[in-house]
């Protein structure tokens, strides 16, 4: 049937917390306090308990017997804290004159390391295999690419190099990848 229009002011006042200034918190508190039938002492405890902790600590230093004095004390503490923060910020922004050290020879640091180039073979997929072959390879800690022993620092020994040759493609067998041995033989010739 929809939400009820009934508001439990006792719960609202008990759960009220300061989220902005003391003045705004006090206005909300007084509005809710006028709707409940609490003792004067309970109202003081609820007001002090809802203050921000940094203000609450100073308000609790002295025994509070009047709600109006609690309001005034909380506002003055907040005002004092705001002035302290402004003073602290202004002091933080003042440049400090530091004595310059005697001229010394600067030691040059090593040039920044260049990132190692990433392998170009990362994007290719491993050769097709069945699920059982894959599980066996994982179980026996074998590399999917070269079938050698695998470890987290493993590097495949057999890298395939493909070459593109200009000219007629009539010759059979020239489109096959070269092995490392064939590459080294071609370089030594």
From TrEMBL:
Q: Which InterPro entries match?
A: Retrotrans_gag_dom (IPR005162), RTL1-rel (IPR032567)
Q: Which domain of life is it from?
A: Eukaryota
List residues of the Retrotransposon gag domain: 11-53
Question: What Pfam families does its record include?
Answer: Retrotrans_gag
Renumbered residue ranges of the record's region Disordered: 92-134, 167-189
Name the UniProt record assigns to this protein:
Retrotransposon gag domain-containing protein
Provenance organism: Nymphaea colorata
């Amino acid at each position: 049937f929809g939400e009820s229009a009934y508001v439990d002011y006792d719960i609202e006042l008990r759960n009220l917390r300061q989220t902005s200034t003391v003045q705004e918190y006090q206005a909300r508190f007084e509005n809710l306090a006028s709707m409940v039938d609490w003792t004067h002492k309970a109202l003081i405890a609820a007001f002090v308990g809802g203050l921000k902790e940094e203000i609450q600590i100073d308000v609790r230093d002295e025994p509070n017997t009047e709600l109006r004095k609690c309001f005034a004390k909380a506002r003055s503490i907040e005002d004092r804290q705001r002035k302290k923060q402004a003073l602290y910020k202004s002091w933080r922004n003042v440049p400090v004159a530091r004595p310059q050290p005697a001229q010394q020879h600067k030691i040059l640091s090593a040039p920044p390391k260049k990132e190692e180039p990433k392998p170009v073979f990362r994007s290719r997929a491993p050769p097709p295999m069945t699920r059982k072959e894959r599980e066996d390879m994982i179980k026996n800690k074998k590399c999917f690419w070269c079938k050698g022993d695998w470890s987290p620092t493993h590097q495949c020994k057999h890298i395939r190099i493909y070459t593109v040759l200009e000219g007629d493609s009539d010759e059979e067998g020239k489109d096959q990848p070269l092995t490392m041995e064939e590459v080294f033989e071609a370089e030594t010739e």
